Amino acid sequence: MTTGRGSDSNRPSTDVALARAAAFPRLRYMGSKYRLLPHLGPLFAEVGGRTALDAFSGSGVVSYLLKAMGYQVTSNDYLAFPATITQATVVNHRTTLDAADLDRICGPAADQRDFIRTTFDGIYFTDADREFLDSAWSHIDRMVGHKRALAISALVLSAARKQPRGVFTVRGLRYDDGRRDLRLPLREHFRERAAAYNAVVFDNGRRNRSITSDVADLDGAGYDLVYLDPPYAPARDDNDYIKRYHFLEGLSCYWQGQTIMQNTLTKKLPKRYTPFAYKHSITQALRDMLKKFHESTIVLSYSSNAVPDAATIEALLRDVKDDVEVRKVDHKYSFGTHATAVRRDVDEYLFIGR
Ligand SMILES: C[S@@+](CC[C@H](N)C(=O)[O-])C[C@H]1O[C@@H](n2cnc3c(N)ncnc32)[C@H](O)[C@@H]1O
Description:
Blueprint: H1 14-22, H2 37-47, E1 51-54, H3 61-68, E2 72-76, H4 80-91, H5 99-106, H6 115-119, H7 127-140, H8 145-162, H9 180-183, H10 186-199, E3 209-211, E4 225-228, E5 233-234, H11 241-251, H12 279-292, E6 297-303, E7 306-307, H13 310-320, E8 324-333, E9 344-353
Parallel strand pairs: 1-2, 1-4, 2-3, 4-6
Antiparallel strand pairs: 5-7, 6-9, 8-9
The chain binds S-adenosylmethionine.
């Protein structure tokens, strides 16, 4: 990183950082920016700075890229499991799960709990897989700190990989297409996913943080760079993360303090309100958010299949920033809420306000 506020010369090169980020364990997550990293890395390097906020961290991959680029990173998401993943991978610099940890978690249960086995019977996974999740948690409950975060992250990723298309809107094994991820017992998944998380633990020499907060409640001051990837109101369909990932959210805390909607077929958690999900509230939410971060260099992700349109976003950014640039990225976006969803082309934009 050679330019920008507070940059220093012994930062890793962008190529090295991108290579590191490419190894980040991949969670299939709506709107994740894995495929955009080759565009984000050089842009972040160009912007420079010492401190960075990833305000909507999701899968955690952008936070991890920022860490790999040498930033002091603050990761935030209003869901709990994204924060657990960034605690394990962005905040954690040294701790890994050793063979004894893995043998214990994969061994006999430490207590008789059966919440997952009974609650999600006939809904998700086989009896043996659900029993493993309960059993694994009987040990994770006795763990603390980064080891606990790593174990939960590996468990969450295992469940996501084992679930068809990674979303918990569908029940049962109807979409089983024989892929290895869907066949592998969760206990074996867990060992593999834990090894993958262990492999990405490294120290970037900064005190990074992981927060679980609504973006509206964050303090906007103190960041050289702010990366914003909000869930834009889609023109069609919806962008409800809890609807798709309620099981991962519950699994990340063993449903402690969560209230399951018992009358729903998939035993969902209640929808989390966000003003970004609705056409009538997103523009004001964006305006408020950009104002909050007006002192920082802002990089805002946006897809052309969203509301409001690109011209409106640009105007909102110009309200708080003098120097605004819009970059269009050719980015194939592959995600759908239906089995028939096909890869569609959308224009991915990066709005930069300096
Ligand atoms: C487009 S995704 C971010 C994807 C992420 N950049 C990645 O690469 O995986 C949007 C994220 O915003 C979170 N979110 C939605 N509304 C929020 C709010 N009001 N405050 C904080 N996070 C919010 C969602 O939980 C979701 O993880």
